[in-house]
């Protein structure tokens, strides 16, 4: 039975390649199964639904406010504000034309919904999906599908809490939010554990949607090879890391290969960079000799394209976001690719057959699960 499926996820970045590709991947996966899957373009913050705001007990608002201004949380919030400022500045100076990719490859609602609109006049569908990405890193009721009309299926596919600490009244609210889901399938073990602690013993662990498509699917939308010579692709987000970028250049220079450096999400330093669009970014990974990254999706696409890679774990207040990296590497038996003291792990070959068997089995397993979840 083919169904109309509305997906709520992050979609409006102009420099977060993983965000756009996870959005694309889940939609294409479902469309390849014959469903009419589409992105619900939701823009939080434009106009709120006062019913939800006014119904919050004052004590909850007060407790949340106190949490936000605790020193550690405040520093984390300030760091994100600074990153967002840099992102806007960099995107203005070096546009990556993400809108072109979205127009070509992602089916979307004709309108952009704010919170008020989506509660009062939601887009019609037979089923709705929340996720993937860190959409549960806040307590926005839209990302918990609280707007969905009675009788429609509600599925959480690979959402992440982003390491958010849930205590007291926040846990009560999220317990209420997740109680209405027909399916709870999370991307990290921590998320599964949270849902189970909140009474949903049926919560399960699933892979990021980018792992559901094949290397051929991505190759079909990747740009032609951009460089004829061997190169190491360095892809870094602005999140904090305990790592000196100079080490990458020294390591590559000793092996007589160039470094192609892509930075996004607030990353700034003195090294020369390139600013590819989405299909060029895929091409850069597909044709790289080696990949060094602190990005979850940079790691994922290195795995998909069978590229020797090293992933730099996040540090400081961003360590909370490492779970998705560790869980995925554990699933594919590649935890040794986490950077420790040397980049020489790049020289160790990958077990390509084992990786590709895992990817194929993953796609088949989730395909069967969606058939069951959707009642096909």
Write a short abstract of this structure.
The protein is α/β, with parallel strands linked by helices.
Would you give an account of this structure?
With 376 residues, the protein is an alpha/beta fold. Helix content is 40%, strand content 12%. It has 14 helices and ten strands. The protein has helices at residues 17-32, 50-54, 58-68, 71-93, 98-105, 115-120, 169-178, 189-197, 215-219, 246-254, 278-286, 296-304, 323-331, 352-374, and strands at 4-8, 36-39, 127-130, 153-157, 183-186, 204-205, 231-237, 258-264, 290-293, 309-311. A six-stranded parallel beta sheet has the order 2-1-3-4-5-6. The protein has a four-stranded parallel beta sheet with strand order 8-7-9-10, sandwiched between helices. It is globular and about 60 Å long. The termini are close together.
Percent of residues in helices: 40-55%
The run of helices and strands is EHEHHHHHEEHEHEHEHEHEHEHH
What's the total number of strands? 10
SS class: alpha/beta
The order of strands across the largest sheet is 2-1-3-4-5-6
What is the 3D form? globular
Strand content: 5-15%
Number of helices: 14
Cα gyration radius (Å):
21 Å
Mean pLDDT: 89
| End-to-end gap | 5 Å
